[in-house]
Amino acid sequence: RKEKNGYYDRFRHRLMIPIHSDTGALVGFGGRSLDGSDPKYLNSPESELFNKSRLLYNLHRSKDAMRRYDRAILVEGYFDAIAIDHAGVPGVVASMGTSLTAGQASLLRRYTRRVVLAYDGDDAGRNATLRAAPILLAAGLHVEALDLEGEKDPDSLIEKHGTDRFLEVLSGASDIFEFAVGVWGQDVGSLSGREKSERV
Question: Which end of the chain is more exposed for a tag (fewer CB within 10 A), N or C?
Answer without folding.
Answer: C
